[in-house]
Input
Amino acid sequence: MNKGIRDADVGIPPTSRTIAIDFLYLDLDVCTRCIGTNANLEAALSEVAQLLRAANVAASVTKTLVQSEEQARALGFVSSPTIRLNGKDIALEFRESRCESCESYACNGTVNCRVWVFQGQEYTEAPKAMIIDAILREVYAAQPASAPAAVPFEDVPENLKRFFSGKRQQTVAEEALCCPAAEEAFCCEPSEKASCCGTADSASCGCK
Output
């Protein structure tokens, strides 16, 4: 096989334009809404891949873990998860509801995550059909829109502040453990708890 063959040599026109797809999220470890939306985004991209090639359109996907209030402010990030196509949020309505899977991070209250509204129904994960619909609308738009810059705002929602605060506290607590989490079950014998962890109570020790 001649690997030097170019698209033009076989009659395949070069990509005419690119759709920028941004996936912004708070967590892909415990947040079921982020995890599910990420999976649906991947499935949607797989389904439309052939159509994009036929339309000479490329998809550029960027996934961003939003880790602080400062980053959220700079990105104009107000709800998790978020999908943007060429800088535009695909969610036409802003709705949120309590996300129990994220509450392990929030010590000071509940955490709300995005609710997606598609064809009159609510979903806690962005439906694959909704993502495909948004991509197709962008592909066949009469005038392809240029990606607007993210609009920073003065403050992030209290909901996100609680999440970031709780996650910081959790990180500090984990770093304070006398041994890495993967070694906790083996790093101390019960008789050594007092000297290892400062407590003789194995039930409250980080090395239990």
